[in-house]
Amino acid sequence: MMDRLNIIVAGGGITGVSTAEWLRRDGHDVTLIDRIPPGDSGQTSYGNAGILARCAVVPVPVPGVWKKAPKMLFDPNGPLFLRWSYLPKLLPWLIPYLRNGRRDKVEAIAEALMPLVGDTLEQHQALAKGTPAERWINTGDYSYFYPDRAAFQDDAFGFALRKAHGFEWEERDRDTLLEIDPHIGPAYGFAATFNGYGWIGDPGRYVADLAAWFEGQGGRMRQAEISEILPLEGGRAAVIADGERIEADRVVIATGAWSARLARALGHEPALETERGYHLWLRGPSIRPPHPYMLADAKFLATPMEAGLRCAGLVEFGGLDAPASDAPIELFKRQVRKLYPTLTWESEDTWLGHRPSTIDSLPLIGPSPKAPGVVFAFGAQHLGLTMGPKTGRLVADMIGGRNPNIDMTPYKVGRFDN
User: Fold this and answer.
1) What is residue 1's predicted lDDT score, i.e. its pLDDT?
2) Engineered SS bond to 260: which of 52, 116, 272, 353, CB 3.0-4.6 Å?
3) Which domains does the chain have, with CATH numbers?
4) Is 361 left (phi over 0), alpha (psi -120 to 50) or beta?
């Protein structure tokens, strides 16, 4: 019989909420703490593209990306943005990040990503089954859109990597695309379509519903800011939340891009930076795609959601504190009108969030060797929604003394420490 533990989960995004709920189902006393309520627009989980990206085994740095990056930075239609004043602080992280774009490194990263993303739809379905959140999970196709077949062939490395991990796709020419969606503009004439995909119809409400279920079933929630985590004797830990010291048998750090400060205070170097991601949410659109489209030339998704059409993605490097930029939103508008030239909408929302990215594009999951009562669960880069339930289940297994059914070595806490 597993010991019943008193556990604090720091972080109210999809990873924290999933971890808290799996731990509660294991019979533990769990308190979820965050300064921002789950599902609120201040949470990174609120604003993502909603896709459950089961074939997302290809990291951002791939062979040759360092040659393309300067051109993307200066191209107004490129998917990469940089606040130049942040560059000196970014470089110690950026250089090893780009070095991991070597073929051998990318293949190893893909091998490590596969166990975290390959069964994401099933993991979400298992977590949400029987809860109000279940209704937000949609299933269907997922298409990568290209101007033509030649542009698709330029992405041969990534698709070969996906195929090596068992993923197959259907190639669709323009005539086939127009049969499915007659509104597509002339800018796109080819797509690679994956079947059996999943996406979330409103990520914010989905996470909020999961959190409400957790609380309704006996979990505790507290709105407070955790400023410090303290290791205690006997493998326990404490948090300082709004100035109050709260002790627990275990503390889980799942605060996304804000986890770096807490990890460093424990003596770790998480090698973590924020990928600033944006969305443009078009409410009351005149056209909605039948399923999520990845516009591969612009590197963002157009996802049909209950409240409209969400364009989400892109990458900006600029740290946690800088205000939102206008250029990514303008790019969304230009590109979505290339997809749908006749598109109109009633209103729009814009958003900026922070994705926690490590230099090897892999999360840190597991107990801290420097603070045994603390467990890390962060660093999912732009795959936080995809990995969240699986990460939570792995953390619950480790805290419960069960051996996870995958090799946890690639996600080892402390792998970047000196």
Assistant:
1) 42
2) 272
3) 6-45+205-271+361-411 (3.50.50.60), 57-200+272-358 (3.30.9.10)
4) left
